[in-house]
Amino acid sequence: MIYIMRRTQLYLDDDLWSRLHAQAHLERTTVSELVRKAARERYMNNAEQRRADMMASVGIWKDRADIPDAEIYVRNLRKGTRLKRLGIL
């Protein structure tokens, strides 16, 4: 994938600056690449990972013998007097 790069400037405290430079040296990369990678992981992959996690949970109750029908189960959970107390029913 080709990215159009935009230049930006960050202000880092001495501890973070030192740690990033040490890590960049260990990984044989640049501080800029470490920051880009961290930003992508934090702000771009998060939505994709959440979607993958949600899709992995689809159908997890399908083989449950103790719940005959999901709709009936949810409706039973919703039974109560709350709506009556609120004057809705």
Describe the structure in your own words:
The chain is mainly alpha-helical. It has one domain. Helix content is 60%, strand content 0%. It has five helices and no strands. α1 crosses α2 (31-43). It is elongated and about 65 Å long. The protein starts with 13 loop residues before the first helix and ends with a helix.
Short description:
The chain has 89 residues and is mostly helical.
Number of separate structural domains: 1
What's the assembly state of these chains?
Answer: single chain
Structural class: mainly alpha
Low-confidence stretches: none
Largest sheet: none
On the 0 to 100 scale, the average pLDDT is 84
How many helices?
A: 5
Order of helices and strands: HHHHH
Strand content: under 5%
Q: What share of the residues lie within helices?
A: 55-70%
Question: What's the number of extended β-strand segments?
Answer: 0
End-to-end separation: 57 Å
Radius of gyration: 25 Å
Q: Based on CA inertia axes, which overall geometry fits?
A: elongated
